[in-house]
Design goal:
The complex is a heterodimer of chains A (113) and B (116). Chain A has 113 residues and is mainly β. Chain A is 0% helix and 53% strand. Chain A has no helices and 12 strands. In chain A, strand 7 and strand 8 form a beta hairpin. Chain A starts with a strand and ends with a strand. Chain B is mainly β and 116 residues long. In chain B, strand 7 and strand 8 form a beta hairpin. The termini of chain B are far apart. Classes of the chains: A mainly beta (113), B mainly beta (116).
């Protein structure tokens, strides 16, 4: 069975500092990987996804993530954060042959001025 | 493109009543729709997967008689919480997928249900 682990429940950073949100997954088959952002009382918005090809994936709002198969990781990064990036971030995995997405527990990113 | 709407966005109902939540794909036909539940400060928990014209597949531990799902068309799925109780209060989110091997899920804005 597949699973997703987000080790950090909260990540506080100062504005304009870089940030990395960690995500590790486990699966015995090939997977697709996603990062979603959720602002308060809203649904989920897709930041980026890895389906195949280049392991470095660029998404919206200046975010990027790198798929590392040997370490089974898909960490999310941004070189310089803004106050508007304050939100909950969810890593998710889907087996390539399945329709169901499994979500991690989420990481709350809080930006300090 | 790929917009999913939910209605209502917020609903308050009395204990023992039923409430229906609609999920619509506005600009595409969704072969599969998903219903999630999210408790405060927690992740999304998949409740069920529904394919148009067939019965929904519920996840383990989800009561199918309490959470009725209907996917009557390629653009509409409904979730009915029957005989609601305060513990059913939660944020319910739907998603819709075009299906296929790389079918991406597009999420609705969510519905906040409060049972008094």
């Amino acid at each position: 069975a597949q699973s997703v682990t987000q080790l950090d429940s909260q990540v506080p950073v100062f504005e304009e500092a870089p940030v990395e949100l960690r995500c590790n997954y486990s699966s015995s088959v090939s997977v697709y990987l996603f990062w979603y952002v959720q602002y308060p009382n809203q649904g989920l918005q897709l930041l980026l996804k890895y389906l195949s090809g280049s392991t470095l994936v660029k998404g919206i709002n200046g975010f990027e993530a790198e798929f590392n198969k040997s370490q089974t990781s898909f960490h999310l990064r941004k070189p310089s954060v803004h106050i508007s990036d304050t939100a909950e971030y969810f890593c998710a995995v889907r087996e390539s042959s399945a329709s169901k997405i499994i979500f991690g527990s989420g990481t709350r990113l809080s930006i300090r001025p | 493109g790929a917009v999913v709407s939910q209605h209502p966005s917020r609903v308050i109902c009395k204990s023992g009543t039923s409430v229906k939540i609609e999920c619509r794909s506005l600009d595409f036909q969704a072969t599969t729709m998903f219903w999630y539940r999210q408790f405060p400060k927690q992740s999304l928990m998949l409740m069920a997967t529904s394919n148009e014209g067939s019965k929904a597949t519920y996840e383990q531990g989800v009561e199918k008689d309490k959470f009725l799902i209907n996917h009557a068309s390629l653009t509409l799925s409904t979730l009915t919480v029957t005989s609601a109780h305060p513990e059913d209060s939660s944020f319910y989110i739907c998603s819709a997928s075009l299906g296929g091997d790389r079918g991406e899920q597009y999420f609705g804005p969510g519905t906040r249900l409060t049972v008094t």
